[in-house]
Amino acid sequence: GAVVSQHPSRVICKSGTSVKIECRSLDFQATTMFWYRQFPKKSLMLMATSNEGSKATYEQGVEKDKFLINHASLTLSTLTVTSAHPEDSSFYICSARPGTGGEKLFFGSGTQLSVL
Amino acid sequence: KQEVTQIPAALSVPEGENLVLNCSFTDSAIYNLQWFRQDPGKGLTSLLLIQSSQREQTSGRLNASLDKSSGRSTLYIAASQPGDSATYLCAVRGNYGQNFVFGPGTRLSVLP
Lengths: 116, 112
Hints:
The structure holds two protein chains of two kinds. By secondary structure, chain A is mostly beta strands.
């Protein structure tokens, strides 16, 4: 099956620093990638939809200047949490849909961000 | 706006039991529905995808059904095993747009 690699799996940073999370589709091209945030024992909240070569589409209430998304190639999307604060601590997950018309979503393993 | 709910929120069963997880959605104009499994602190693993024109999908001990008109899907797990313990989420994709709307999940514990 399709594999999506997400790194890092865990990151601890100081308040005010920026953190970059990478999401790679290893064996397929992903024209569309999605970034989610998940709070403990809660479901996934879609943050933004990332399309290769164009600007990301952010969901209502998500600050695009704080959560920078770059989808520079068909296999890589990055999420940068800028000037992180403790309230940004969460589990972030990316997913990708193959560009060959496949309908399934394939997920990365997630990144646990802790901001001190 | 599509809303997805799942019942029960948590379920604990002895090993070997057959069980049913329920998913309901408010807008029946869906493109497809997907069931996922999530282990603690991990990403999601796709289990079954049902297109809007389909009634059910099967994979091993798992069977997912879809009744679009009533806004319901069920995930049936046969002969449950301790390794099935995880959170199960359903997600619905509407006819417009690319996004999936996720339910809150059912936390399943299968006791040996």
